[in-house]
């Protein structure tokens, strides 16, 4: 095993180009587990800790460019307003120690369906900025996950940052685990309301081979909200609409039975989380809308 | 490979490090600092918690090569670290005092005569130590929380320590210890 | 001749600071908080090698061939050993039945069984070498449950059994069977106005001590070996290690290293013999440290169980009879299975008065992971089931669940199903009363001005509910555990106590082989020495095999038995000290000959308080030392047909009240409070007593809602050997645990104390389950209860 220590992003890209099998390591919270337990013996480890650009973020007009190695703790503390869904998701990641090291780049690189960030990224809308010596490109999050623990990266590419749309409405995130802290998701659900486009987006974790959106549920809810004039009148969403949305979210799952939970439970739990997060976000939207009206 | 970094204020050099070794392994097996404990090697127990450039991390998940040039505080350095924090940058240990400390020595059995940080003392006093294997990691995590949040609520304590497993105590006496340290800290004891 | 620990006339040492009854602090506390305390995994030796174990990847197979040549050829590899390299004819070990191969011979019987061992100069080299050993298996069908184990044509897990249980078991795949018949359950059932039946399942729990198995074996110049080890019983290890090495016990020296928790998981041998074999083979020190994955294969677990119960009661709520059948899965090797069967059967009806019982407990041999000792063994599984039954029956009768228990609660004088009378306080009804009398925690504590604090709700930080679906439930349970080794076992301990003057001060040194595993035995030993010998300074000598056996740190027995041994040796030392005093100073004061003399506050004083001499003067130029064995009163085996017999030396009781909040839609549970009341006889160290109770309570909580080793029934392979998927409670899963300690002396025990470590682990689980049932209305016949069981999605 060789340990490569690039001092800059350019050096990192060069190293990855030279050694496409090199395994990038930043927070180490996935890679080191595999090494400690002898599940993986990469030829090269590519340490990204010295590439300090990766731990920085920029808040732009419409989106946040979040460096791949920005620790979850920073997201929780600093980006709660811009990225509420991701901030909530970050808070559910493992333990304080892990949140101090791990970042979204790791979740994306590993592309495990159980990665906590994915549902929040799917719901908010995001693009993954990847780069190689050949150049840089943005991969829409919807195209990023290609299979169980597989993603759209080319062998010579590294994840530089994630461009996440700044919240234009309430976002929520829920995750079921069988412990009240430090737990891998049995399943997870992210929901974002986008009042500007009058759409909702969802993200489901650990309930299919890859993180997925519940597109039929989104379409149903978009139509129902539109038809009922909900975005304007701010009425409480009717229970039947919420239920159908929840059922469609559950139906979007393609889960398995494993030691963490049954497929049947996962579907059930995603439905419950969909209904609850819809209630929470919509209540929040109504509250905001009401206050805005009140001020006006 | 060779790794140079600072541990508890002292420069350290580790040689012939295998690239897959963790910071935890280097501390324990190469630098003679076995205080950080290896209980799971997968970031699920917190027993190996150290501060890396001030930030609590699981040292089992930091590749040794990643600490090149960086600053690590382990449980062995916690008392000094807390002391320096308490008196700021102005008070180092005067030479005379350092000599006295060495002359006083320690009880080899019980460690009596050792200077402790407030959180270490509180863990002893509150009965928060049983087998003690989780203790070093908990101390590093709890000390850092009290540094950030000197008056934590119970829920704050539980959240901050939720990455540290203990199998002996049922956590109640650990809660007592952290509350005790916080109270003593605010009283300036 | 057993000493019964009858109360002494004189209350010795009441004036000496730091004696019994005080919450003195741990002598190892400072070392433990500074990271200097040397655990077995911290051992280091110049030139040491690292040992690695190659384990079977399948659960049941014949070994066709093992090829170690590639591994041996690797640079940095010093030794590779298989069964063929074992030095003597003794190739098995075991606590009671020597059925466990040091290295697999011809066959593997469970997933993760040791097949070969490697010593190399770096752990990674050792791992790579182990990976290069080629083992060819021919797989056999797996036996995973009672039906497959006892089928007439079932493959025998162990062929040619010749242990002392084979004569009375109905099938060779049953390790041991213990029936207990008393009265006539069949007839009594006819008097019952209400009968409830239940079938219960208890999952496989892991001790999950935080310090994985580890140790360092250093070859000695005389051809022997010195093993630094974390264990629960040095002398039991020694007896199993030495014959395999072909060494006399005197050439296997054992020193207890720091132990990172045990809970039963270190009663059996893990890496001890492997490390010694490699050290003797290479002539170099060999260290072995399991990682967490390996630890799940490296020690036995709590027996999973199926429990079938029938309880009956009259209209006025009196229990008429209990019939039960408890099937424990012992896995591939016997370990402590026979004793677990003894406990499960003899304690199967709980702390209640029932005259007519028909009880049977068995432990199976299967290809599942070996199971053995874990805190409260046998009694834990039974308590889960009989307390569920008691709730059901109370509901049938139409009585309050606590009142129903109190009505049927045993008391001092009650006859156990084994025919043994309970001859010390048994405050079962009182413990229930106390735990019920504690104020209930306020409702909706999670509500705050800023909305719901998810940290205090089911799901915790995962943000699953802001109060939706959350229902509170309350449940009660009480349990009974035996203390000490039962069924006629010669359960003794040894203490060497020395008194001398050091630097002008009288100092006592206590030397035992007691394994301090975190419980605080070292604290208590110092307290006993202070009380008995009137000194302030007590040195606790490291535990090793240079002193006689202390027995195991298990079965809630160490404070009783080794504490008793320390007390006894102190008393013998005191007599010698007084003899010296009489010799030296007897002529100066008549009280030396006439008065009752005590050692207090560093002085010899009369019972009237008159100071006769300083201890330092008496001991000047003298060293007094006594090493003596001490036994509790003997027990006897249970009759193999009827289960009758004075099998237990003491009982221990605890009661719990659990308050839970359940997210009934998601099936997530938050335990809000878990209150405990326990009778401890006498709290030698109140701080440690409460710590033990809270710790035991939390392990019971763990197996109620999350802890389970999951074994694939098709392959008998372990599916979750990691802390990622075997979950134990975090601080956010653990509630406040108020403890009410009752001290009713047992006159048979030293200071009246009662063993305390296990009882709180019993009733905690059924109390939590009862609370969840109360919140959800579900029947819940298995533990741990998982979200799918609460949501109909299992």
For the largest beta-sheet of chain C, the strand count, sense and barrel status come to: 7 strands, mixed
Give the low-confidence spans of chain A: none
Please bin the fraction of helical residues of chain C: 25-40%
Please give the count of helices of chain C. 19
For the secondary structure, the number of strands of chain C is 33
In CATH terms, what is the architecture of the domain at 171-295 in chain A? Answer: 2-Layer Sandwich
Structural class of the secondary elements of chain A? Answer: alpha+beta
- Highest-level CATH class of the domain at 40-140 and 212-259 and 266-298 in chain C: Alpha Beta
**CATH superfamily membership of the domain at 171-295 in chain A, which one?**
CO dehydrogenase flavoprotein, C-terminal domain
> How many individual helices of chain A?
11
Average of per-residue pLDDT values of chain A: 96
What's the shape of chain C? globular
Any low-confidence stretches of chain C, pLDDT <50, length ≥5? 1-11
Helix content of chain A: 25-40%
Q: What would you give as the CATH superfamily of the domain at 40-140 and 212-259 and 266-298 in chain C?
A: Aldehyde oxidase/xanthine dehydrogenase, a/b hammerhead
Second CATH tier, the architecture of the domain at 40-140 and 212-259 and 266-298 in chain C: Alpha-Beta Complex
Which word captures the global form of chain A? globular
């Amino acid at each position: 095993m060789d340990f490569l220590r690039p001092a800059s992003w350019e050096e990192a890209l060069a190293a990855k180009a030279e050694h496409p099998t090199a395994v990038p390591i930043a927070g180490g919270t996935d890679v080191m587990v595999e090494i400690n337990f002898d599940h993986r013996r990469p030829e090269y480890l590519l340490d990204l800790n010295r590439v300090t650009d990766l731990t920085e973020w920029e808040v732009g007009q419409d989106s946040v460019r979040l460096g791949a190695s920005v620790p979850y703790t920073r997201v929780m503390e600093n980006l709660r307003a811009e990225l509420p869904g991701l901030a909530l998701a970050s808070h559910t990641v493992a333990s304080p120690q892990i949140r101090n090291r791990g970042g979204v780049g790791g979740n994306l690189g590993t592309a495990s369906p159980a990665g906590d960030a994915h549902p929040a990224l799917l719901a908010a809308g995001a693009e993954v900025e990847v780069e190689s010596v050949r150049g840089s490109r943005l991969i829409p999050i919807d195209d990023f996950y290609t299979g169980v623990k597989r993603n759209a990266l080319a062998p010579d590419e590294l994840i530089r940052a994630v461009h996440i749309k700044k919240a234009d409405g309430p976002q929520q995130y829920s995750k079921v685990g069988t412990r009240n802290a430090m737990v891998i998701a049995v399943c997870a659900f992210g929901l974002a309301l986008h009042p500007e486009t009058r759409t909702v987006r969802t993200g489901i974790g650990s309930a299919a081979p890859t993180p997925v959106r519940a597109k039929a549920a989104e379409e149903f809810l978009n139509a129902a909200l539109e038809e009922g004039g909900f975005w304007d009148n701010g009425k409480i969403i009717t229970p039947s609409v919420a239920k159908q949305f929840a059922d469609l979210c559950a139906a979007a799952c393609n889960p398995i039975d494993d030691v963490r939970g049954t497929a049947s439970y996962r579907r059930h739990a995603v439905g419950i989380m969909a209904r609850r997060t819809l209630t929470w976000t919509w209540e929040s939207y109504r509250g905001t809308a009401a206050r805005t009206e009140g001020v006006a | 490979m060779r790794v140079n970094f600072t541990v508890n204020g002292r420069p350290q050099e580790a040689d012939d490090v295998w690239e897959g070794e963790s910071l935890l392994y280097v501390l324990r097996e190469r630098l003679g600092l076995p205080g950080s404990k290896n209980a799971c090697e997968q970031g699920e127990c917190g027993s190996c918690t150290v501060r890396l450039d001030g930030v609590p991390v699981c040292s089992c998940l930091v590749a040794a090569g990643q600490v090149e040039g960086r600053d690590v505080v382990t449980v062995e350095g916690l008392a000094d670290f807390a002391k320096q924090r308490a008196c700021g940058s102005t008070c180092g240990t005067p030479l005379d005092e350092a000599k006295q400390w060495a002359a006083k020595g320690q009880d080899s059995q019980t460690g009596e005569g050792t200077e402790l940080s407030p959180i270490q003392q509180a863990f002893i006093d509150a009965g928060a130590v049983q087998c003690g294997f989780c203790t070093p990691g908990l101390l590093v995590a709890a000390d850092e929380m009290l540094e950030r949040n000197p008056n934590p609520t119970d829920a704050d304590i539980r959240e901050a320590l939720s990455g540290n497993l203990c199998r002996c105590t049922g956590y109640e006496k650990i809660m007592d210890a952290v509350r005790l340290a916080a109270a003593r800290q605010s009283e300036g004891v | 001749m057993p000493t019964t620990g009858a109360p002494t006339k004189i209350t010795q040492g009441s004036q000496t600071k730091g004696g019994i009854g005080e919450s003195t602090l741990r002598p190892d506390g400072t070392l433990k908080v500074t990271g200097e305390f040397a655990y077995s995994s911290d051992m280091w030796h110049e030139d040491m090698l690292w040992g690695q174990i190659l384990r079977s990847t399948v659960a049941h197979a014949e070994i066709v061939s093992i090829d170690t040549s590639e591994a041996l050829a690797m640079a940095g590899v010093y030794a590779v050993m298989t069964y063929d390299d074992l030095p003597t004819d003794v190739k098995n070990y075991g606590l009671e039945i020597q059925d466990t191969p040091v290295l697999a011979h011809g066959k593997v019987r469970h997933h993760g069984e040791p097949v070969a061992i490697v010593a190399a100069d770096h752990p990674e080299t050792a791992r790579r070498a182990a990976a290069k050993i080629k083992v060819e298996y021919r797989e056999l069908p797996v036996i995973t449950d009672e039906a497959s184990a006892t089928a007439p044509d079932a493959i025998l897990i162990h062929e040619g059994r010749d242990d002392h249980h084979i004569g009375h078991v109905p099938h060779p795949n049953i390790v041991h069977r213990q029936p207990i018949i008393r009265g006539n359950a069949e007839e009594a059932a006819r008097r019952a106005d209400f009968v409830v039946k239940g079938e219960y399942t208890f999952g496989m729990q892991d001790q999950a001590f935080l310090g994985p198995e580890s140790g360092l074996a250093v070859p000695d110049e005389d051809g022997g070996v010195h093993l630094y080890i974390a264990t629960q019983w040095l002398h039991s290890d020694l007896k199993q290690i030495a014959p395999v090495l072909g060494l006399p016990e005197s050439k296997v020296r054992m020193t207890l290293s720091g132990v990172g928790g045990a809970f039963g998981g270190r009663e059996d041998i893990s890496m001890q013999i492997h490390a010694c074999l490699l050290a003797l083979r290479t002539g170099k020190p060999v260290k072995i440290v399991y990682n967490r994955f390996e630890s799940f294969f490296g020690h036995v677990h709590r027996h999973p169980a199926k429990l079938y119960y029938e309880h009956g009661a009259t209209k006025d709520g009196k229990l008429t009879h209990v019939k039960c059948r408890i099937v424990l899965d012992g896995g591939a090797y016997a370990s402590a299975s026979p004793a677990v069967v003894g406990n499960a059967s003899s304690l199967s009806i709980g702390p209640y008065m029932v005259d007519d019982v028909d009880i049977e407990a068995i432990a199976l041999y299967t290809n599942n992971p070996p199971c053995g000792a874990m805190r409260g063994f046998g009694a834990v599984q039974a308590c889960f089931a009989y307390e569920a039954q008691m709730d059901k029956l109370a509901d049938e009768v139409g009585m309050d669940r606590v009142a129903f228990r109190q009505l049927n609660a045993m008391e001092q004088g009650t006859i156990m199903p084994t025919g043994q009378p309970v001859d010390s306080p048994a405050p079962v009804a009182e413990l229930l009363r106390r735990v019920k009398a504690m104020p209930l925690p306020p409702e909706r504590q999670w509500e705050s001005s800023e909305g719901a604090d998810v940290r205090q709700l089911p799901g915790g930080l995962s943000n699953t509910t802001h109060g939706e679906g959350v229902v509170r439930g309350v449940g009660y349970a009480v349990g009974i555990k035996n203390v000490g080794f039962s069924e006629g076992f010669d359960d003794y301990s040894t203490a060497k106590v020395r008194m001398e003057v050091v630097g002008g001060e009288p100092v006592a040194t206590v030397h035992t082989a007691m394994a301090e595993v975190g419980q605080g035995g070292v604290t208590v030993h110092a307290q006993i020495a202070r009380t008995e010998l009137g000194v302030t300074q007590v040195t606790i000598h490291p535990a090793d095999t240079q002193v006689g056996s202390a027995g195991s740190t298990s079965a809630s027995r160490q404070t009783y038995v080794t504490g008793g041994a320390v007390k006894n040796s102190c008393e013998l030392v005191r007599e010698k000290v007084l003899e010296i005093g009489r010799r030296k100073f007897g002529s100066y004061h008549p009280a030396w000959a006439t008065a009752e003399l005590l050692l207090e506050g560093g002085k010899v004083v009369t019972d009237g308080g008159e100071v006769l001499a300083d201890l330092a003067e008496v001991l000047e130029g003298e060293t007094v030392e006594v090493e003596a064995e001490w036994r509790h009163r003997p027990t006897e085996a249970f009759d193999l047909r009827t289960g009758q017999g004075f099998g237990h030396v003491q009982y221990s009781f605890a009661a719990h009240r659990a308050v839970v909040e359940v997210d009934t839609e998601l099936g997530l549970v938050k335990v809000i409070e878990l209150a405990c009341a326990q009778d401890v006889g006498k709290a030698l160290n109140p701080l440690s007593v409460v710590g033990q109770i809270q710790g035991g309570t939390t392990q019971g909580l763990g197996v109620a809602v999350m802890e389970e080793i999951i074994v694939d029934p098709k392959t008998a392979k372990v599916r979750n050997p990691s802390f990622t998927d075997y979950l134990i409670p975090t601080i956010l899963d653990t509630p406040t645990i108020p403890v009410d300690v009752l001290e009713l002396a047992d006159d048979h025990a030293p200071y009246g104390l009662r063993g305390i470590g296990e009882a709180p682990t019993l009733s905690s689980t059924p109390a939590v389950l009862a609370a969840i049932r109360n919140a959800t209305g579900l029947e819940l016949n298995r533990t741990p209860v998982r979200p799918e069981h609460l949501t109909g999605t299992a």
